[in-house]
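STRUCTURE:
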């Protein structure tokens, strides 16, 4: 390959990577802003911000689509609701779960409601059926623990299968295998939580920080969810989520945390496209005091 061609190829690669990162950063910036508006119950402004975020790319996290739909229903804005609803098609969440949402009942009489579900044929074209099949086999092995006693060796085997799958396919997300519910939970969430919880007291367990942060960078995992899982590992590398939730309304700099720790936490949060720990603490405090319910805000 000539030097000139190599330079051109590398330049194009850098442009693609920069554009992808920019899209992820922009999306999450808008979502952070939308959530701050939502906890203040500024519904019209929050809906505008959510919609702007959702249409940055064709792929958005389930929880964000759900929040936008819920605000549109709260405002009785049918046009916005049915403009956003098709984004739920590839999540493969069954119709009965939509019907259980009280806010959505006012929308169910609209003919577009029935039309949406009549066309929903899961798994849809965007779902990787082969990957879904592999994922289901691993998940069933792990989920057997809830029906029968499962020893540590059996759990470790299921976990290693998941790690190997990630190595082969990349992080398996709701975009490839769909979601279990409106929070964006997948069939692997419980396995991951179980593992990071075990690591909090047993540092011989695999550190998932690298896998989780890469999934965020790739736009496959919601940053707040990744941050929560990372903090459950109880390692020095922290995103501050558990600290912020413990302190409620008080900003991090008033929560007796050394400035050096706050700065370090904010460096980590910036890398994960999250708002500062001070902003997150304020948001979580407002969420608690507002009595807001029926939304997914991490």
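SEQUENCE:
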């Amino acid at each position: 390959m000539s030097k000139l061609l190599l330079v051109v190829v590398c330049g194009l690669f850098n442009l693609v990577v920069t554009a992808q990162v920019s899209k992820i950063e922009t999306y999450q910036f808008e979502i952070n802003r939308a959530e701050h508006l939502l906890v203040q119950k500024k519904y019209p402004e929050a809906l505008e911000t959510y919609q702007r975020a959702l249409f940055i790319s064709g792929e958005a996290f389930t929880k964000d689509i759900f929040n936008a739909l819920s605000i549109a229903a709260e405002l009785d804005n049918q046009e916005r609701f049915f403009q956003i609803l098709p984004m739920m098609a590839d999540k493969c969440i069954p119709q009965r779960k939509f019907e259980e949402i009280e806010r959505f009942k006012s929308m169910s009489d609209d003919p577009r409601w029935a039309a949406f579900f009549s066309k929903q044929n899961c798994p849809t074209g965007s779902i990787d059926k082969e990957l879904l099949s592999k994922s289901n086999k691993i998940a069933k092995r792990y989920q057997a623990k809830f029906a029968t006693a499962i020893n540590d060796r059996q759990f470790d085997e299921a976990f290693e299968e998941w790690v190997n799958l990630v190595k082969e396919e990349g992080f398996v997300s709701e975009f490839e295998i769909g979601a279990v519910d409106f929070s964006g939970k997948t069939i692997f969430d419980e396995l991951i939580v179980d593992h990071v919880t075990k690591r909090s007291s047993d540092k011989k367990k695999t550190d998932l920080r690298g896998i989780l942060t890469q999934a965020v960078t790739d736009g496959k995992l919601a940053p707040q969810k990744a941050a929560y899982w990372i903090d459950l590992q109880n390692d020095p590398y922290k995103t501050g989520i558990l600290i912020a939730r413990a302190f409620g309304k008080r900003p991090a700099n008033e929560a007796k945390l050394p400035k050096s720790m706050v700065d370090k936490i904010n460096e980590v949060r910036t890398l994960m496209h999250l708002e500062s720990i001070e902003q997150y603490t304020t948001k979580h405090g407002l969420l608690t005091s507002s009595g807001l319910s029926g939304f997914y805000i991490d």
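REMARK: DSSP finds 15 helices and no strands in the chain.
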